[in-house]
DNA sequence: AAATTGTTTGCAAACGTTTGCATAAACTTC
DNA sequence: GAAGTTTATGCAAACGTTTGCAAACAATTT
């Protein structure tokens, strides 16, 4: 095995040309004659040559790396166990790859609070995709103000000086609630923490639907986890009995936690209680009864997130954008 | 806002010392007087200075980046939607962070087949963590032979020239099957594709348990997804009726897919059919009935994976290692 | 006070690319 | 065939760190 790492200059020597020529050839620069280009590219492939990214990043001041950070509230367990967020990260990765960009997976532990410094000044990444607004947008705002090219997955209706891509949470919350009401529910419970930006919007949609139907709203504010939902619903049933006949859950995981609590008490879904979630994670389809939900189009959102980030890197000013949602009717809310 | 990116030399000028001194001070090199070091570190913080990683990587030939790649079989849907793999990635990230390392999320799309070149020669990363052995280990073997520092999450009993960290899949498969048999099952079905390395081991454990009980084995080979499991079990029930009274599923997602199929036909779990999964994803606890499973200790595995990789980077020869599993008894297999 | 030792800092040469500018070669055009 | 134009390549200077070695300074010993 040829252990010696080849450099541009070695390749140049082998081909009898200058390093400039090789460099240009490998970057497909039309300054170099097509024939020469192809010859050099073949040579590079043959010798298993690959450019030293450190050197080229230093020289070009570009990394072709995008940092993705899952923006967690310190006090929630949602985090790394939420299938929805992880799926989103996976799809962002694919979207980045299509543009030849790489994904640096980050978190607040590494980046602490000064994102400008950590990501941009240090030239770790060219830009930043923040997944989740969390409860506080201070960090994001500071980074955006300091000139970090960034886009955020969150609620696009939030007032902000940075572009946010996300679903129409208000509409989703309203549609789901309306559906429950239309099918006879009188007391729809909102299950989730409205302090969270995206969930707050869903809650607003819920409120509007409820008040339009002249029903009374009812919130159970919990952490965004299935366990919290399970415990919360259990407790509520113990305390007040079955005081609702519909649940608009702020996420599928939360809905599934609620579902378990209901099933354990032989409360029929959807007959006694209609249940609708949000996200359309793969478990929604596989639960029993299958879970009605508002599907967020993560694939499309990922593509848009990346496009907007690239536009920003190209110096354009970009705006927030809503990604269409879809109501998926399954068994839990017939 | 101070837009001009500070360099080492600027900071040096500000402090009235040489760049060497600043560089050493920021790296906490004891050659520099403690007092000077602290002064310079304060100065750096005050001016929001941070080192250009591209430059320092070029100079030191180290990146402090580890590439993590989810090794998918092209023909399976398991991939990015499998909560277990994603959770593992999340925990590997945390484990890396503790050592000051960053995670580059990669996949076969970017890295194609020549991992040496893509990751190491190009100095994108110092080492590689491969999540999943897949059905073919050719790529991994080639990379290991070519000297890529790498560790693999998979079945540690597989013969290999690279270290594998993973659960005792044989034992897990055996324990779960034994439990089903002990509780009266006569016909335990193995649900999963034994061609997959880890699953093959679980299958061996299953086989041994079954033959020890003088029962007859029965496999339904399917893709590692809940959907495939749902369809597979449905089809089997249509074709042959309820020809089993226990299912050893190769993963929790698969088990949950099977669970849905059973519940839809009012087949009682665990009375008619006992069901045990593998992984202990968060849904296992929240399903109804809750899913008995073999818990894989991903957190510990992640820590070990990183330690082994670091040892390898330090030039040590490291071996495969088994991470303990735990049988979690829940309702689905009483 | 000179010589020796130990401590702290600075000089300058790398690391391996990319790219503006200069040059050389090959064609046009008058 | 000289001058201009186009095309293809090479020269050499960056990019911003780190680090071996030398130097300066301080402390100790002779």
TrEMBL record, chains A, B:
Which keywords, in A-to-Z order, does the entry hold? DNA-binding, Transcription, Transcription regulation
Highest taxon of the lineage: Bacteria
Q: What PROSITE patterns does the entry give?
A: HTH_LACI_1, HTH_LACI_2
List residues of the HTH lacI-type domain. Answer: 6-60
Annotated GO molecular function terms are:
DNA-binding transcription factor activity; transcription cis-regulatory region binding
Q: Does the keyword Membrane apply?
A: no
Query: Known InterPro entries for this protein?
Result: HTH_LacI (IPR000843), LacI/GalR-like_sensor (IPR046335), Lambda_DNA-bd_dom_sf (IPR010982), Peripla_BP_I (IPR028082)
List the SUPFAM superfamilies: lambda repressor-like DNA-binding domains, Periplasmic binding protein-like I
Question: SMART domains from the entry?
Answer: HTH_LACI
CDD domains, per database record: HTH_LacI
A Pfam family found in this protein is: LacI
PANTHER family reported for this sequence = ALANINE RACEMASE, LACI-RELATED TRANSCRIPTIONAL REPRESSOR
UniProt-recorded name of the protein? LacI family transcriptional regulator
Organism equals Pseudoalteromonas lipolytica
